[in-house]
Amino acid sequence: MRVINPKKRETQSRAKKTSKFLLLIPAVIILGAAFAVFKLTQSDSTASDTPAQTQSAVTQNIQVAAKKGTLKTFTGEEFKNLYNNFAYPNTALISEKTPITDNEAADDKIREVAVSRGYQLRGAPVTDAFVNVGKDYELQQRAAQPWLDMVEAAKADGISIGLTAAYRSAEDQKTLFLGQLNNSGISPQAIGTGYYNAQISQILRTTAIPGYSRHHTGYTVDIACNDMPNSSFEFTNCFEWLSANNYEHAKKFGWIPSYPKGTENQGPDPESWEYVWVGVDAVTE
Ligand SMILES: [Zn+2]
Known about the structure:
Layout: H1 6-49, H2 57-67, H3 76-85, E1 91-93, H4 104-116, E2 123-125, E3 130-132, E4 138-140, H5 141-156, E5 161-165, H6 170-184, H7 188-191, H8 197-204, E6 220-225, H9 237-252, E7 255-257, E8 274-277
Antiparallel strand pairs: 1-2, 3-4, 5-6, 6-8, 7-8
Helix pairs in contact: 4-8, 6-8
This protein binds zinc ion.
Protein backbone atom coordinates (compact mmCIF):
# COMPACT_ATOMS: atom_id res chain seq x y z
CA MET A 1 0.00 0.00 0.00
CA ARG A 2 1.32 3.45 -0.86
CA VAL A 3 1.11 5.99 1.88
CA ILE A 4 1.18 9.56 0.84
CA ASN A 5 2.75 11.77 3.42
CA PRO A 6 0.44 14.78 3.56
CA LYS A 7 3.08 16.90 5.26
CA LYS A 8 5.53 16.32 2.47
CA ARG A 9 2.96 17.23 -0.16
CA GLU A 10 2.09 20.38 1.68
CA THR A 11 5.74 21.42 1.90
CA GLN A 12 6.16 20.75 -1.79
CA SER A 13 3.18 22.78 -2.79
CA ARG A 14 4.23 25.56 -0.48
CA ALA A 15 7.68 25.57 -2.07
CA LYS A 16 5.99 25.69 -5.44
CA LYS A 17 3.79 28.56 -4.30
CA THR A 18 6.82 30.43 -2.90
CA SER A 19 8.71 30.12 -6.17
CA LYS A 20 5.64 31.24 -8.05
CA PHE A 21 5.33 34.17 -5.67
CA LEU A 22 9.01 35.09 -6.23
CA LEU A 23 8.37 35.05 -9.95
CA LEU A 24 5.44 37.39 -9.41
CA ILE A 25 7.54 40.10 -7.74
CA PRO A 26 9.41 41.25 -10.88
CA ALA A 27 6.15 40.98 -12.81
CA VAL A 28 4.45 43.31 -10.33
CA ILE A 29 7.38 45.74 -10.50
CA ILE A 30 7.27 45.77 -14.31
CA LEU A 31 3.51 46.26 -14.32
CA GLY A 32 3.82 49.04 -11.74
CA ALA A 33 6.44 50.82 -13.83
CA ALA A 34 4.33 50.39 -16.96
CA PHE A 35 1.34 51.83 -15.13
CA ALA A 36 3.38 54.81 -13.92
CA VAL A 37 4.52 55.52 -17.49
CA PHE A 38 0.93 55.13 -18.68
CA LYS A 39 -0.30 57.61 -16.04
CA LEU A 40 2.41 60.09 -17.03
CA THR A 41 1.47 59.80 -20.70
CA GLN A 42 -2.17 60.24 -19.78
CA SER A 43 -1.65 63.37 -17.70
CA ASP A 44 0.57 64.75 -20.49
CA SER A 45 -2.16 64.31 -23.03
CA THR A 46 -4.71 65.90 -20.68
CA ALA A 47 -2.39 68.85 -20.16
CA SER A 48 -1.90 69.37 -23.88
CA ASP A 49 -5.66 69.41 -24.35
CA THR A 50 -5.93 72.30 -21.94
CA PRO A 51 -3.69 75.18 -23.03
CA ALA A 52 -3.91 76.79 -19.56
CA GLN A 53 -2.15 73.75 -18.09
CA THR A 54 0.89 73.76 -20.37
CA GLN A 55 2.54 76.48 -18.29
CA SER A 56 5.16 76.14 -15.54
CA ALA A 57 4.86 73.48 -12.86
CA VAL A 58 3.95 76.11 -10.27
CA THR A 59 1.17 77.48 -12.42
CA GLN A 60 0.05 73.93 -13.06
CA ASN A 61 -0.26 73.32 -9.33
CA ILE A 62 -2.31 76.45 -8.94
CA GLN A 63 -4.48 75.33 -11.86
CA VAL A 64 -5.04 71.93 -10.26
CA ALA A 65 -5.99 73.52 -6.95
CA ALA A 66 -8.30 75.93 -8.75
CA LYS A 67 -9.92 72.97 -10.52
CA LYS A 68 -11.72 72.03 -7.35
CA GLY A 69 -13.57 75.31 -7.79
CA THR A 70 -16.34 76.07 -10.23
CA LEU A 71 -18.10 73.69 -12.56
CA LYS A 72 -17.89 74.71 -16.21
CA THR A 73 -21.05 75.65 -18.09
CA PHE A 74 -21.50 73.77 -21.36
CA THR A 75 -23.63 74.40 -24.42
CA GLY A 76 -25.25 71.30 -25.92
CA GLU A 77 -22.57 71.23 -28.61
CA GLU A 78 -19.78 71.48 -26.00
CA PHE A 79 -21.23 68.56 -24.05
CA LYS A 80 -21.36 66.59 -27.29
CA ASN A 81 -17.73 67.43 -28.13
CA LEU A 82 -16.61 66.41 -24.65
CA TYR A 83 -18.26 62.99 -24.67
CA ASN A 84 -17.19 62.32 -28.26
CA ASN A 85 -13.55 63.34 -27.76
CA PHE A 86 -12.88 62.39 -24.13
CA ALA A 87 -10.07 59.83 -23.71
CA TYR A 88 -12.04 57.23 -21.75
CA PRO A 89 -9.50 55.39 -19.57
CA ASN A 90 -9.01 51.66 -20.10
CA THR A 91 -10.72 51.59 -23.48
CA ALA A 92 -9.56 51.04 -27.05
CA LEU A 93 -11.50 51.93 -30.17
CA ILE A 94 -13.37 49.00 -31.66
CA SER A 95 -11.60 49.12 -34.99
CA GLU A 96 -12.66 45.97 -36.75
CA LYS A 97 -16.00 45.78 -38.47
CA THR A 98 -18.07 43.81 -36.00
CA PRO A 99 -20.29 41.49 -38.07
CA ILE A 100 -24.01 42.20 -37.79
CA THR A 101 -26.03 39.93 -40.09
CA ASP A 102 -23.47 37.52 -41.61
CA ASN A 103 -24.16 39.20 -44.97
CA GLU A 104 -21.32 41.59 -45.78
CA ALA A 105 -23.23 43.75 -48.28
CA ALA A 106 -26.07 44.15 -45.79
CA ASP A 107 -23.64 45.02 -42.98
CA ASP A 108 -21.91 47.68 -45.11
CA LYS A 109 -25.26 49.25 -45.96
CA ILE A 110 -26.44 49.21 -42.33
CA ARG A 111 -23.17 50.86 -41.18
CA GLU A 112 -23.55 53.51 -43.91
CA VAL A 113 -27.06 54.39 -42.70
CA ALA A 114 -25.87 54.39 -39.08
CA VAL A 115 -22.95 56.74 -39.78
CA SER A 116 -25.25 59.08 -41.76
CA ARG A 117 -27.39 59.31 -38.59
CA GLY A 118 -24.29 60.34 -36.60
CA TYR A 119 -23.36 57.01 -35.04
CA GLN A 120 -19.65 56.68 -34.26
CA LEU A 121 -17.38 53.76 -33.54
CA ARG A 122 -16.85 53.57 -29.78
CA GLY A 123 -14.25 52.15 -27.45
CA ALA A 124 -14.45 48.93 -25.51
CA PRO A 125 -12.69 48.05 -22.23
CA VAL A 126 -9.12 46.85 -22.54
CA THR A 127 -9.15 45.00 -19.22
CA ASP A 128 -11.95 43.45 -17.26
CA ALA A 129 -11.92 46.15 -14.57
CA PHE A 130 -15.65 46.14 -13.95
CA VAL A 131 -17.59 46.79 -10.79
CA ASN A 132 -21.06 45.41 -10.30
CA VAL A 133 -23.09 48.43 -9.19
CA GLY A 134 -26.20 46.41 -8.42
CA LYS A 135 -28.61 44.06 -10.22
CA ASP A 136 -25.68 42.85 -12.36
CA TYR A 137 -25.19 46.25 -13.96
CA GLU A 138 -21.49 46.72 -14.55
CA LEU A 139 -19.42 49.89 -14.91
CA GLN A 140 -15.73 50.55 -15.34
CA GLN A 141 -14.01 50.93 -11.97
CA ARG A 142 -13.51 54.72 -12.28
CA ALA A 143 -17.20 55.35 -12.94
CA ALA A 144 -18.65 52.96 -10.37
CA GLN A 145 -18.14 55.00 -7.18
CA PRO A 146 -19.18 58.30 -8.82
CA TRP A 147 -22.37 56.56 -9.93
CA LEU A 148 -23.10 55.21 -6.42
CA ASP A 149 -22.27 58.63 -4.92
CA MET A 150 -24.70 60.34 -7.30
CA VAL A 151 -27.45 57.86 -6.37
CA GLU A 152 -26.81 58.67 -2.67
CA ALA A 153 -26.83 62.43 -3.29
CA ALA A 154 -30.13 62.12 -5.14
CA LYS A 155 -31.55 60.04 -2.31
CA ALA A 156 -30.51 62.72 0.20
CA ASP A 157 -32.59 65.17 -1.86
CA GLY A 158 -35.57 62.79 -1.88
CA ILE A 159 -35.02 61.56 -5.46
CA SER A 160 -34.71 57.86 -6.35
CA ILE A 161 -32.66 57.08 -9.44
CA GLY A 162 -31.67 53.62 -10.70
CA LEU A 163 -30.30 51.92 -13.80
CA THR A 164 -31.84 50.33 -16.86
CA ALA A 165 -28.51 49.84 -18.68
CA ALA A 166 -24.78 50.17 -18.04
CA TYR A 167 -21.90 48.33 -19.77
CA ARG A 168 -22.97 46.36 -22.84
CA SER A 169 -20.66 44.29 -25.05
CA ALA A 170 -20.67 44.49 -28.85
CA GLU A 171 -21.94 40.91 -28.86
CA ASP A 172 -24.98 41.86 -26.72
CA GLN A 173 -25.58 44.88 -28.95
CA LYS A 174 -25.56 42.59 -31.98
CA THR A 175 -28.26 40.43 -30.38
CA LEU A 176 -30.37 43.52 -29.66
CA PHE A 177 -30.06 44.89 -33.18
CA LEU A 178 -30.72 41.53 -34.83
CA GLY A 179 -33.83 41.13 -32.66
CA GLN A 180 -35.16 44.43 -34.04
CA LEU A 181 -34.20 43.49 -37.59
CA ASN A 182 -35.98 40.13 -37.31
CA ASN A 183 -39.10 41.88 -35.99
CA SER A 184 -39.07 44.17 -39.03
CA GLY A 185 -39.17 41.13 -41.34
CA ILE A 186 -36.51 42.54 -43.70
CA SER A 187 -34.22 39.84 -45.04
CA PRO A 188 -30.46 40.60 -44.89
CA GLN A 189 -30.14 39.63 -48.58
CA ALA A 190 -32.39 42.56 -49.54
CA ILE A 191 -30.66 45.18 -47.36
CA GLY A 192 -27.52 45.44 -49.50
CA THR A 193 -29.49 46.98 -52.38
CA GLY A 194 -30.26 50.06 -50.28
CA TYR A 195 -33.98 49.59 -50.84
CA TYR A 196 -34.66 49.30 -47.09
CA ASN A 197 -32.51 52.22 -45.89
CA ALA A 198 -35.51 54.07 -44.43
CA GLN A 199 -36.58 51.01 -42.44
CA ILE A 200 -33.02 50.46 -41.21
CA SER A 201 -32.86 54.09 -40.14
CA GLN A 202 -36.11 53.56 -38.25
CA ILE A 203 -34.54 50.74 -36.21
CA LEU A 204 -31.45 52.88 -35.62
CA ARG A 205 -33.64 55.53 -33.96
CA THR A 206 -33.58 53.40 -30.82
CA THR A 207 -30.99 50.67 -31.31
CA ALA A 208 -27.31 51.00 -32.15
CA ILE A 209 -25.35 48.49 -34.20
CA PRO A 210 -22.50 46.56 -32.54
CA GLY A 211 -19.37 48.69 -32.15
CA TYR A 212 -21.34 51.95 -32.21
CA SER A 213 -23.05 52.02 -28.81
CA ARG A 214 -21.83 54.35 -26.07
CA HIS A 215 -22.57 51.53 -23.61
CA HIS A 216 -19.57 49.58 -24.96
CA THR A 217 -17.13 51.82 -23.05
CA GLY A 218 -18.43 50.89 -19.60
CA TYR A 219 -18.81 54.61 -18.77
CA THR A 220 -22.42 55.09 -19.90
CA VAL A 221 -25.63 54.63 -17.94
CA ASP A 222 -29.32 54.71 -18.79
CA ILE A 223 -31.05 56.15 -15.75
CA ALA A 224 -34.46 55.08 -14.49
CA CYS A 225 -36.60 57.38 -12.38
CA ASN A 226 -37.98 55.13 -9.66
CA ASP A 227 -40.27 57.90 -8.44
CA MET A 228 -42.06 58.26 -11.79
CA PRO A 229 -41.52 54.98 -13.67
CA ASN A 230 -44.38 55.56 -16.10
CA SER A 231 -43.41 59.05 -17.17
CA SER A 232 -41.18 59.96 -20.04
CA PHE A 233 -37.79 60.58 -18.38
CA GLU A 234 -37.44 64.22 -19.37
CA PHE A 235 -40.66 65.03 -17.50
CA THR A 236 -39.60 63.37 -14.22
CA ASN A 237 -38.33 64.90 -11.00
CA CYS A 238 -35.17 62.81 -11.58
CA PHE A 239 -34.41 64.61 -14.83
CA GLU A 240 -35.14 67.92 -13.19
CA TRP A 241 -32.70 67.07 -10.38
CA LEU A 242 -29.96 65.96 -12.81
CA SER A 243 -30.33 68.75 -15.35
CA ALA A 244 -31.05 71.85 -13.25
CA ASN A 245 -28.50 74.64 -13.55
CA ASN A 246 -26.67 73.18 -16.57
CA TYR A 247 -26.66 69.63 -15.15
CA GLU A 248 -25.02 70.73 -11.92
CA HIS A 249 -25.87 67.60 -9.90
CA ALA A 250 -24.66 65.29 -12.67
CA LYS A 251 -21.44 67.24 -13.29
CA LYS A 252 -20.65 67.28 -9.57
CA PHE A 253 -20.03 63.53 -9.87
CA GLY A 254 -18.36 63.71 -13.30
CA TRP A 255 -21.44 62.75 -15.35
CA ILE A 256 -22.64 64.63 -18.42
CA PRO A 257 -25.77 64.21 -20.55
CA SER A 258 -25.39 62.06 -23.63
CA TYR A 259 -28.09 63.91 -25.55
CA PRO A 260 -28.28 67.49 -24.29
CA LYS A 261 -30.76 69.86 -25.86
CA GLY A 262 -29.51 71.69 -28.92
CA THR A 263 -27.53 68.82 -30.41
CA GLU A 264 -28.48 66.81 -33.46
CA ASN A 265 -27.37 63.91 -35.61
CA GLN A 266 -26.07 61.79 -32.77
CA GLY A 267 -27.13 58.37 -33.90
CA PRO A 268 -30.30 57.44 -32.06
CA ASP A 269 -33.15 59.80 -31.28
CA PRO A 270 -32.44 61.98 -28.20
CA GLU A 271 -32.24 59.98 -24.96
CA SER A 272 -32.66 62.25 -21.96
CA TRP A 273 -31.97 59.30 -19.63
CA GLU A 274 -28.47 58.56 -20.90
CA TYR A 275 -25.40 59.92 -19.08
CA VAL A 276 -21.68 59.46 -19.66
CA TRP A 277 -18.91 59.63 -17.07
CA VAL A 278 -15.97 61.90 -17.95
CA GLY A 279 -14.78 62.66 -14.41
CA VAL A 280 -15.06 65.83 -12.33
CA ASP A 281 -11.81 67.36 -13.67
CA ALA A 282 -13.14 67.46 -17.22
CA VAL A 283 -16.11 69.58 -16.14
CA THR A 284 -14.34 71.86 -13.66
CA GLU A 285 -12.62 75.20 -14.41
ZN1 LIG B 1 -28.31 54.18 -23.43
